[in-house]
Amino acid sequence: MEKLLQALRSTQIWRSVFRHGYPDTPRNRTLAVLSNTFLHLHPVKVRRSGIRLSYTWCMGGLTFFLFLIETITGLLLMFYYRPTAEYAYQDIFGLREHVPLGIMRELHRWSAHMMVITVWLHMYRVFLTGSYKPPREFNWNVGVILLVLTLLLSFTGYLLPWDQLAVWAITVGSNMARATPFLGHEGPGASLLAFGGLNFVHAGDDARFGLLAGRFVGEGALLRFYVLHCVGLPLAAATLMAIHFWRVRKDGGISGPL
Amino acid sequence: MGETLKNAIDWLFEPTRYFLGSAALLGAILYFRKFFSKTIWMWLFFVLGTIFFVWAFEDPDFNKIITKPDNVPILILLAGVVYFSWLALRQAVINDERIKRGEPPVEGEEGKKKVFTWPDLVYTEFICIILFTALLVIWSIEIPAPIEEPAATARTPNPSKAPWYFLGLQELLVYFDPWIAGVLLPGFIIVGLCAIPYLDTNPKGNGYYTFEGRPFAVAFFWIGFILFWVSFVILGTFLRGPNWSFFGPFEYWDVHKLEPLVNVDLATYFWVDLLSQPRPDNPLIREAPGIALLAGYFFVLPPLLAKTILKQQMKDMGFLRYNVYMHLFLWFGLIPIKMLARWVFDLKYIVGIPEWFFNV
Ligand code: HEM
Question: In this structure, which CATH number among 1.20.810.10, 1.25.40.10, 1.20.1250.20, 1.10.10.10 belongs to the domain A73-250?
């Protein structure tokens, strides 16, 4: 057995993948982190306090992990889902009946809820440890945008099942846009943007119309939300996460007393 | 006995009592933090919470609202926020005592030691991932994702609720018009969060838990996050039913329960009740008292405070920081002010110009 492993480890294939021995010496442990694309998000050595669970609560890491779960399960769901008023509901309904091992929708939905919770708690812990203070001001701001993106991802996804819950929750949420000052047709100031008897801002061109691609939550909104949910927002979030993680390192790793 | 207790709980959770009670509890916990950071409190919370659940589960109305699949995360949120707030407070209390004795905070002592990412960090991450995956898989097998009737734009469900993470804002719709509750306040929350690192110039508490090093910042975030965000989400999820009326945890969601709306504008109080005149027709004259109040609040108060009790702050922060900070803070303050005015005076609008959709 020992021999076999030894032989395996000395093949060209093995050595082309792993450039170090088993990580039980300082040298190999360093190499394990440095030569791995994913692990090298981390520094080689970290402050003892920074990795204590009671310090970080692991919430940032869990948020990222949940984002990965969402990506994988979301991809699988896309195979079965057509974003049209005709098919959307049927496709979601059919998931449970027709797809083997059908817990993808459950995993996707519950993880999405959890992601909102973990990102809130992450922000809470970053605040309570004062980790937004210099030099981490910028990364806190990247975080705030990530928070908004997380909520938008969840919000756009909420519409896709195209059932009563979905459509009315999005209706309630997007009704707010109607009241945007100057940009919504029921917002303060909008009536000032008029020329003669002609209103520039009305139900057919205001902020809500732009969000929903229509005067109410209809097929246009479904397609718009689908594209944002599956492509636009995840790309934006992934990019910002890359910046966020890079900055955690560049700002001196997980915070600790100066 | 059971019924009396249920009625008492329903009574206790009425929004005014719920909000003021939570505020008092938060204040007490922060003030007596040493006492409340004892481990026994977490045991009590979780044990009593479980007992309460088992007992209340029998009740059909409670059961109905608690077992909605989409409400499970709210319970996790509740437990999580309580637990982690306690955990943070506990570490803050320990650190504050160390600092008083002239020692560095726990994080400072530990931070001097560096450990290898592999295995120390990778191992923690790995365990977290495994446990969380297990939790999610079990949850997904046990509780199917809900799907309701197909979308029908003609049939409005009652209540119509926004997704749960926005219910705090929907709750504010009770007190404010959509342009404030749904546009301005969320905008200020985002801008305000972004501004925090630039407004907070206190160098203490960077990288360790503490309360005494930055009491105002910590208390402010506790109040903002726990009282005005999380507790409103919980209120909106469990205690708001048809027509957004209040329902106690053990109350049947009766569509016909209507709370009478008797709210009165400030303009009416001023012209009709105080001066015994009809309300003037010109909206600007009619709303002059409210406009004067708001102008005073937003534009006279900050310089006034800067000259008096906040002199030191003004000097430390500088003109720009001070003013940005004050305005964000005053907007935040408008929320409890309006809530109290509603409860005490049945106040509808401070300034109400529906002609222009300008109601505050
Ligand atoms: C999708 C959302 C997010 C992900 C995946 C994420 C991930 C992470 C991770 C993995 C860390 C390393 C330390 C830790 O786990 O606590 C971190 C640190 C940090 N995060 Fe986030 N985060 C997110 C959102 C946010 C938000 C909303 C904020 C604040 C508004 C924020 C501010 C920060 C800051 C300032 C640090 C450095 C903390 C320190 O050095 O102690 N992040 N983030």
Answer: 1.20.810.10
